Amino acid sequence: MKWLKDLDSFLEDRGIFYLREETLAPHTTIKIGGRALRTLYPAREDELISLLTYLESKEIPWYVVGGGSNLLVSDEGYQGVVIMLKNLRGIEELSCGEQLRVKALSGTKINEILRFCYHKGYSGFEFLAGVPATLGGAIRMNAGAFGKSTSFLVRKIKLYREGRVWERESKEEMWSYRSFKEEGVILSAELEFPKQEREVISAQLKEIWEKRRLTQPVSERTFGSVFKNPPCCYAGALIEQVELKGYKIGKAKISEKHANFIVNEGGARAKEVIELMQFAQKKVWETFRIYLEPEVKFLGITYEA
Ligand SMILES: Cc1cc2nc3c(=O)[nH]c(=O)nc-3n(C[C@H](O)[C@H](O)[C@H](O)COP(=O)(O)OP(=O)(O)OC[C@H]3O[C@@H](n4cnc5c(N)ncnc54)[C@H](O)[C@@H]3O)c2cc1C
Q: Counting C-beta atoms within 10 Å of the first and last residue's C-beta, which end of the chain has fewer, N or C?
């Protein structure tokens, strides 16, 4: 394919690291998924912008991946280019007082930001402690837990879309449950954290970690919550009530610990995960007339409920 050759030349000229036909499974926390034609690893913001501009101008299909912790990739992979953001990392301190203000690149791990704040005596991201997300993914998904969400901490967001880069002050109307509504690729964000004693943060971390360990399959291959919670109740409770805890299709299983998690027992296929999701949705619909909307994002898959 000519466009692939041209892309390779473009990447080589600019010294942007890339791989051919890389398997995507290792880049996801559920460890499922076939190959992409190319995986690209920009390490700087200007590299990412030039890449996106190039891909858009050539009408090449592309997709961005952060920590791959809420993602299901097709067994057949993706006939396009995947931009891996994990090398686009860095935290810059902007100001420090009652609040700590930082700017972080979108591929920075949430746990890295959490550690940075902890050492300086500021709190904020404890609710996502141990979650293998990047900042960009946490913003896109408005990741949250225990009554808190990413939107509470974000003050400004820098985005790329269709050849334009712009910064947006964070406003309430831009956010909803598990979603940041503005389109585009998140390049970086400014965040604010309140001062807190380290002992208090440590105690909160311990409590949150213990809660997760007791209620979620944290050491297994999953992609976090499968479905969003409907307005009435918890998705996990509904799936549990239709007695699907532990139900398996192939090597994909509804977790016995938390029914809104699907576990890859080893060698599970995306197809099996999809079937399991559709089955759980159908059972819940038939029993309660409640529609479960997937929270997980799909790559190379057209999901039909
Ligand atoms: C053990 C475990 C526990 C979890 N617990 C929670 C929890 O408590 N609360 C919660 O909300 N979620 C949880 N999750 C799910 C997941 O961690 C979150 O949804 C997280 O925000 C995804 O971040 P990511 O960087 O891994 O994104 P990815 O999975 O890589 O991507 C998710 C989506 O965001 C898009 N995206 C990624 N980066 C960018 C960017 N820079 N710009 C634009 N779009 C982007 C991707 O294209 C994709 O559509 C959990 C997952 C696991 C495995």
A: N
What's the CA dihedral at 39, 42, 46, 52 to 10 degrees? 10
Q: How confident is the model at residue 304 (pLDDT cuts 50, 70, 90)?
A: confident
Report, in this order, helix, strand and coil percent for the chain, each rounded to 5.
35, 30, 40
* Residue 128 scores a pLDDT above 90: yes
pTM across the whole model: 0.97
Structural domains of the chain sorted by starting position, each given as residue range(s) with its CATH number in brackets: 2-84 (3.30.43.10), 91-214 (3.30.465.10), 217-299 (3.90.78.10)
Active-site residue list: 178, 225, 295
Q: Does 71 contact ligand 1 (Cβ within 6 A)? A: yes
Question: Which residue has the CA at smallest separation from atom 45 of ligand 1?
Answer: 137
Is the distance from CB of 264 to CB of 250 less than 8 angstroms?
Answer: no
